[in-house]
Amino acid sequence: xxxxxQTPKFQVLKTGQSMxxxxxxxxNHEYMSWYRQDPGMGLRLxxxxxxxxxxxxxxxxxGYNVSRSTTEDFPLRLLxxxxxxxxxxxxxxxxxxxxxELFFGEGSRLTVL
Amino acid sequence: GxxxxxxxxxxxxxxxxxxxxxxxxxxxxxxxxWYQQHDGGAPxxxxxxxxxxxxxxxxxxxxxxxxxxxxxxxxxELQMKDSASYFCVGNSGNTPLVFGKGTRLSxxx
Lengths: 113, 109
What we know:
The complex is a heterodimer.
Chain A: E1 4-7, E2 10-13, E3 19-25, E4 31-37, E5 43-51, E6 54-57, E7 64-66, E8 76-78, E9 87-94, E10 103-104, E11 108-112
Parallel strand pairs in A: 2-11
Antiparallel strand pairs in A: 1-3, 3-8, 4-5, 4-9, 5-6, 7-8, 9-10, 9-11
Chain B: E1 2-5, E2 9-13, E3 18-26, E4 31-37, E5 44-49, E6 53-57, E7 60-65, E8 70-75, E9 84-91, E10 98-99, E11 103-108
Parallel strand pairs in B: 2-11
Antiparallel strand pairs in B: 1-3, 3-8, 4-5, 4-9, 6-7, 7-8, 9-10, 9-11
């Protein structure tokens, strides 16, 4: 069972570079989301999607873009990386917006120098 | 929007019982979830309360009182492997799941 797959697991960027974190799920989940987690902090929502073609902003969307062209994929793009974006990023999905259980990927650890 | 409050840290002895409280302010609220996260790992789902009362899953139980905007996670027969962070999350319709800052549980011998 693949579940939620994130790539890459680790990435180092220089300030100003751009990159895309990939997220794919094989559970036919409608709802997908991206969180970031900083040391000693909880998870903060960046962007989310309630279905293909629909995306919306979370708590901390600045500096990030998302798209949802298919049900399976929900990539997160960093437009111009900044040291403040050094964090661990988690992609998560659930069956519908109204169901309780959120399934997480293993996380992507990003360092911006 | 959502606002969830839980203690930042709790320490308990192996074999004991610990309760982690969560108070919330969530518009359109319909349920409370709990997640566990070990250091270096991803959060994993523990329980969901859609109705008032107690839900039991093995050594873990979760409680919800909508009238008090309050819930808790109860861990019994604590084991060292229960040392982790625990998050309560308010579920409210089509609005996204927002996590609180979590409670770091340390289990000591």
